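I'll show a typical protein example:
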Amino acid sequence: MAQVRIPTPLRKLTGEQELVTTDGATIGDILTNLDATYPGLGERLCDEQGNVRRFVNIFVNDEDIRFLEEKATVVKDTDEISIVPAIAGG
């Protein structure tokens, strides 16, 4: 199972867990399984078309999925996935 690091603002949906595990062959599978296990998480990560929201960054072993294959990025059981919300400010 891949490990997924949950950012502080979303931990209320995971029972305050910082690190959760889930199955999936791709990032898309991981996101689907996370939403099934932790309802409400999916809508905060993906838009109505199922695309990762612009202000959400997802990394697989420190590599941004936007520079890989987005939701089709293949995930191994030993991978660590990090969900990082974008920070804006002045």
